[in-house]
Every structure is written in structure tokens, then in C-alpha cells.
Input
Amino acid sequence: MAEHVTPLAPYSRMPGGGISRRPLHVIILADCSGGMKGEKIQALNFAIADMMPHLEAWEHDQEQAQVFIRAIAFATEPRWHIRDPVPVAGIRWKPLQPVAKGLTNMGPAFALAAEALAPGQIERRALRPALLLITDGLATDPPGGFEAGLGTLLAQPAGRAALRLSIAIGRDAQSDALTRFIGDPTVPVLVADSTEDIADRLVAASLAVSRMSETGADRGAVMRRLFGPAEGFPPGVFDQDTII
Amino acid sequence: MTSELEPAGWHVVVGTARGAVHYARGMPNQDSAEYQADAETAATVVAVADGHGHSRHARSAIGSALAVQVSCRVAAQFAGSLASQPAADGAAEAAREHLPLAIVREWRGEVAKHLSAHPYTESEQAALAEAGDEPEVPYGSTLLVAVIAGRWLACAQIGDGDVIAVRPDGTALCPVPGDSRLDGQHTTSLCQPDAEDDFRTAAHDLSGEPLLALLVATDGFGNAQSSASWQGEVARDIVALAAEHDHGWFAVHVPDWAERCASADGSGDDTTIALLLAPRDSWTR
Output
């Protein structure tokens, strides 16, 4: 991981191997099934590339986190599109490609993300990670596959603690499965009604990821500002830096 | 901020710094530190505490200050019985039996006194009721306390932060057991019911395994460290620095370490470091 480490000036002689901001890992789980071919995948690639400067600007403006990006492209099988965490600063997004006749199996993608979030794979000091699931269709996992993958993800402390957001491309993609991935029915699935909406939803998601990662942030207020009225948001959903 | 003490053999330097995030949000430094040494018993006591940053804990700076005050008092009272312990099991048991319960009881008493003198406003009371929180919750804080008496080092900790014991050969020892529930966003706390049950305690025989130093820090220090194996690197470097410099050098530089860790180049969080340096003849003989 190409982490920005502040070198220790010789005069300072601080013990240890240097200091740096706390990592904030963002893992994008992008649907690359056959249904995404054409305009949708192009719009998604454009939108993800467009989201990065927003995250980079936030990283620059705050005092706590250094943002790292990873991406999983999933269809019938998942694969790492960006395996090793890449600092968001200066990232160049390599376009995703759809898989011809590929299905929308989400469970294996969750399991792959879980591997990356296992103890020892993610820094102990990392801020709670963010998982961003983007799909245009319903999960096509074989029976039990979705639940098994989600169970694997939630079995990891970092997976369970992660901020999990989902963007449905098209109303038809807004499913109970996405709500279960988010893990709290009061957090909305972000719906992009058209390919033009994808960029807006991703920017909203990136804002959510960034603002909610800030220590002491009023997460309910962030949610209200981004996603509308918050009658349903329990105060504890986005709390952090507090008691168990 | 810096402070320094050396009346009882162990040299104590403390540095604390307000986190960059706290600056940005207009929040105070919610960490606290206190130490005392008893020249008569040669006991040294150090406590650091980290008041929680969440808005539920609006009085956490006061809570952490009360935590270090009462824990130093309790630990100093405990030092005599600790020093007389003949064996490691007894020392560990004494620390476990005495420190958590007495600290929590006294902390809650001090919180009650403060609350009596400074009652919650109507809006604070309403927020408390809405969250379903007990009156102590706004004062929530972690606590790390170390007491050195006779041949024993005893530690007690609730919540996050680090106690790093530095051996003369430059290796690190973490005497206090970890707690897998501490995930960086949530911590155990003095303000929770039955807080005494969430303390982790330890005793270390300094006569059997001498230490060169002990570093006690709030999580702003550890969360700033780039390396996953930072505890060993910090121990190695402290030994090297102690070989090159006198105690006065540490008095100047420990506060600088805290400032740097608390900066936007580090964790951005309030950072407090208490460094205890053993008398040279205790680990060179």
C-alpha cells in the first residue's frame, strides 16, 4: 500500500517508524454482469472516475483520514479490479468491462471483500471501512449464496462495522437484498433512475462516506442533508467514538 | 504541554496535545494526565485518560480530569500493599481486586459532586433522556493507570490506549491484555454500568525482568503510527534515545511527539504520552 508517511525529521527523533493519517478504506463492489454492457457500464465508469476528485478534495480538507480505494468487479464470479489499496489522491480509474452473459452473483463478491477486511489484512488503526455496492439488477445467486456471502462479510469485525451503502441503477434493481446488505432498513438504497443519475448518486455516496467518517460527525444530520428527511434514522446508526 | 517529575527514582515526562480534528471543530483537548511520586515509599503513579469525543459525552474533558485525579489517589493508596506482595500472582490479584472497583466508585462519586454543582441544563437533560443515557455518560472517559511500588509494576486500563513496557534490550512488552471489542469507534468506558468489570489489569515483576521505560498513551499516539508493529519499533528507539540523551532531553521532546501525533499528519486526535524512565541502576545491574 502506497501510504503517505510523514518522515521524521532528524532533530525530532520521535520513536517508531513514522506517523501518518488513519486509513479509510473504500471498497467499490461494481456489477459487471452482462446486463451492464453498453451505456450503463460507460456511465458507471464515468461516474466512478468523477467521484474520485470529490473524495480527494474531502481528504485534503479534513484532518484525520487518508482514503484508499479498492474495487471488486462481480458477475457470475467476483474478481479484484483494484486488489491493493490505492490512495485516492491522483488515482486514475481503469474502466470496468462487463462480462458477456455474466450473472449478478453478489454473495461471492461479499466473501471476497471479507477476505480483505480480515484481521491482519486491515490496519488495526483504520477508520471503519466503507463498502459501496452498485448494481443494475437483482441478485442471481444460487439458493443460499447471497446469505452465505453476506454472512462471511458480517462475520468479520471490520465488515460488520463498515459503512455499507448501495446504489441501484434503475428502480427494478432496488431490492430487499440491497437493504439486507446495508444492514439497516432505515438507511435508503440510493436509486439512479437513469444512467445520468449514477454520477449524482455516487457523489452523494462519497459525501456520505467522507462526512460520516469524521470523528464527532452528526451522522443523522449528514443523512438528512444527503438523503432527505430522517424520521427513520435511529440515533445510533452512524454513531462512533463512543461507548460500547 | 509538558510536565516532569523525578522524586522517587523513576523519571516521569508527560506531553499532551489537542488533536487537529478538535481544533477544526472547536473542541477542547479532552485528554488528561496526572502523576505523583512518594519519596517515602518510592512509589510512582501515572494516569492518562481520554474523554470520548462523541456529542453524547459533552462533559468528557471533565470526566477524564476526574479520572486521572481519583486514579492517582487510589493507586497511591494501593502502592503500599502492592509493594508488600511477595509473589506475582498476589500482585496481579491485588491489582485486579483493588484498583478497578475503588477507581470506579470514586470516579462516580466525583462525577456526582460535579453534577450537583453544575446540573444539566434542560436541553442537556432532554438529550440525556432521548438517548436513554445515565447521568454519568456525558462524563465518559477511558483510563490507563500505572503504579510502580517496590518490585512491582501494576497496570489497570479501561478502554483504548496503550501501555508499552520497554525492556533494556529494546524489545517491547504489552503488559495489559487487549480487548477485541475496541474497534476504533467504540470503547469501554468509566461511564458504563459495571465499568469495573471491563478493566484489564496486570502486574509485572521488575526484579525478575527489569524495564528501561514505560510508555502510557491515549489512542491518539498509537493511531498515528504508520507501522503495524509500532510497539516494537517505539521500544527499540526509546532504548537508543535513552543511551544518547539525559532525562532533560525527553522533557523537551515528549511534548513534541504528542503534538506531532495529534496533528493532521498523524491521528488528528487528542494525544497524551506519559513516559516513565527507570533509574539507570535498576536495569544495568
User: Anything to note?
Assistant: Chain A touches chain B at residues 3, 5-6, 12-22, 62-64, 123-128, 157-158, 161, 214-216, 218, 235, 239-244 (CB under 8 Å).
